[in-house]
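Please decode residue identities from the backbone states below.
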């Protein structure tokens, strides 16, 4: 892959925009002219490129009609932008790749080693993916370690860029990248050692070695309290890593384990940095009927981590019961509603929450007037403007692991409450929000001692896991639950 041109642009919503850095590679441009032949389009001056790019990104010309930029004739092929260069036949400069971060835009024009017509699909062009990877690495170098734009630091790093490009991109062709020093306080180039560093990785970690592994499971549930409707629930897990380890290509292995009676993980997807994997890990899918023969671990993931935090893998799991079982009953009685809610924490779930709340909204009614509701545990907040009851259960269920809400509500306020096209009449729900630290429903965990790091420095290993709720509904058992609610689980 070679670059015809490179630009670094700063802007504030299209105002005071300027090209902070640009570089053109004449040898690559000569090759582009030979490949394109009579269809060759020269790269305009920086000021013209700036105007075209900001207009194409919708950051300027805001007073012009919307269709002047986004009409049906402009077939957008993101991430490869088309710049309509003035000239015979309104020639197009393509593909111009861009990455934006705050007021900073990085753009490059890779060499497409193919005839311009018929235009090849972006997915078939290796230069596009490599060009985006190059911009991503350049972005990491230009920004501070916290990913924020620092004007003083950015100026110093831009001043270093000509010498760095001479090393990593001679004659417009990116090579293995040497270490340019720490991204926040670099003053000179530093060698990367004997180990080759990939072109997409613009820096090496310097300092204390730390590996953070976070395992998060989210559970969704639709409970109806009705024998004619089957309750639904599912579990989705993600493992996120942040590896601050010295070396150009450090090797790390994270192992997931299950309890002896745990259900095997299914639908496993892994990050491309994973170097090898047992094929049996990827075969279990929730579409197939579980026959007990699926691989049940341990699940080993060896990888060479990028500098930024990333999702190592994701999975699903079939658990026998949801963590909180509930029953919601709402009945019309004369001029008020009778409310009854029962929540029971399953015995297999640790009775310790960061937070746990139950929200009871009431739609398509007048504003609440009289709320006479009692709870057996926790606190009840009433928002009459929103027609909403918020039942805060705190950090623990009582020893019985069961809580109740009973009472009645009248609606005769001066203004109407919120509306909803689904929750009409007795079609109503309770929505649960909770977070349980140091727990997963599947029992999956990352043992701190099972994380292996092959590096010159021994890192500090930090692991965590937690369970979160998402779309956790209890539908009124005396009303009609919408048919589409079960489809939300798919």
């Amino acid at each position: 892959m070679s670059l015809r041109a490179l630009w670094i642009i700063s802007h504030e919503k299209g105002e005071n925009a300027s090209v902070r850095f640009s570089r053109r590679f004449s040898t690559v441009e000569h090759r582009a002219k030979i490949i394109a032949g009579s269809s060759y389009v020269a790269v305009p001056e920086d000021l013209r490129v700036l105007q075209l790019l900001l207009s194409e990104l919708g950051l300027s010309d805001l007073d012009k009609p919307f269709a002047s930029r986004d009409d049906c004739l402009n077939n957008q092929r993101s991430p490869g932008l088309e710049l309509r260069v003035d000239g015979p036949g309104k020639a197009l400069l393509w593909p111009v790749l861009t990455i934006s971060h705050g007021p900073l835009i990085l753009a490059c024009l890779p060499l497409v080693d193919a005839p311009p017509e018929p235009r090849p699909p972006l997915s078939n062009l290796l230069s596009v993916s490599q060009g985006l990877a190059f911009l991503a690495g350049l972005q990491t170098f230009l920004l501070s370690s916290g990913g924020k734009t620092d004007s003083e630091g950015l100026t110093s790093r831009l001043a270093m860029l000509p010498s760095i490009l001479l090393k990593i991109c001679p004659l417009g062709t990116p090579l293995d990248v040497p270490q340019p020093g720490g991204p926040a306080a670099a003053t000179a180039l530093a060698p990367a050692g004997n180990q080759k560093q990939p072109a997409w990785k613009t820096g090496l970690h310097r300092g204390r070695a730390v590996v953070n592994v976070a395992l998060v499971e989210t559970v969704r549930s639709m409970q109806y309290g009705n024998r004619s409707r089957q309750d639904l629930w599912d579990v989705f897990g993600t493992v996120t890593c942040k590896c601050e380890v010295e070396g150009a290509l450090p090797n790390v292995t994270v192992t997931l384990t299950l309890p002896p009676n745990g259900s095997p993980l299914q639908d496993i997807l892994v990050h491309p940095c994973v170097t090898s994997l047992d094929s049996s890990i990827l075969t279990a899918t929730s579409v197939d009927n579980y026959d007990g023969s699926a691989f049940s671990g341990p699940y080993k993931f060896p990888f060479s981590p990028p500098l930024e935090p990333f999702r190592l893998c994701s999975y699903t799991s079939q658990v026998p019961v949801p963590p909180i079982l509930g029953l919601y009953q709402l009945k019309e009685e004369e001029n008020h509603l009778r409310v009854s809610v029962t929540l029971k924490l399953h015995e297999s779930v640790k009775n310790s929450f960061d937070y746990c709340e139950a929200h009871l909204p009431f739609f398509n009614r007048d504003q609440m007037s009289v709320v006479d509701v009692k709870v057996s545990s926790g606190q009840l907040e009433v928002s009459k403007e929103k027609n909403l009851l918020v039942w805060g259960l705190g950090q623990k269920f009582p020893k019985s692991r069961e809580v109740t809400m009973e009472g009645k509500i009248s609606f005769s306020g001066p203004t109407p409450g919120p509306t909803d096209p689904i929750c009409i009449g007795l079609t109503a729900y309770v929505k649960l929000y909770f977070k349980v630290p140091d727990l997963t429903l599947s029992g999956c965990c990352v043992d701190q001692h099972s994380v292996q790091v092959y590096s010159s420095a021994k890192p500090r290993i930090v692991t965590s896991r937690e369970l979160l709720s998402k779309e956790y509904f209890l539908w009124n058992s005396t009303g009609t639950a919408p048919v589409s609610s079960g489809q939300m689980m798919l």
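Observation: Confidence is low (pLDDT under 50) at residues 176-193, 484-490.
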